[in-house]
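Quick note —
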Amino acid sequence: MASTQAEYAARAKIGPDPELERRRRQRSMVFALLSAAYFMSFVQRVALSVVAADLAEELHIGTVELGLMSSAFFSVNGLFLALGNAGAVLGTAPMAWLASAAGWRGSFAIIGVLLSILTVLCWVVSRAWRPQPTDRAPGNAAQTGCPTPRCGRERGAARTLATLRMSLHDRNLWLVSLFMFARYGSQTAFQGLWGIPHIMSIYRVGR
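Predicted structure written out below.
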């Protein structure tokens, strides 16, 4: 009994690992921020339906203008995707012009400088960091059987690719994806703008 008490007292003096506590707080903060942003995105999607009548009256606009305002969430999301895919356009004729003017080495040097600047900006904004592998960290050699961290990363990448291939060959996944593609836009448009005014009008209930 005395030895057990002494061992417990010795462990109590050690206390929690400050590094593990810091990582735990950081993970919780990242999760909380992303969850809050996702939460607010849905608030914005349906907020117009609550004030649709007020907006129409005060701004002197009709249903077409209200629909345009409600669809702005999608005209912005589409703009984001369009800007990303514009890189494919930039890599054709404009790239040919740049290569003619600066040579292929010069053009790729310019692209490299731009990518380096973007990389630094992403690192500064996100404060990206890679934790060093420790004996306590999940996925260490004792658990995975890998002698080096590189081996663990390669096995993880192989598992990810295998899961992706299995998902792409799953017929049920494609059926669900097509169903969501056909349903989500119309549902969100109705729910985000016309749902509440429709219920108020049909069932004669207040906001």
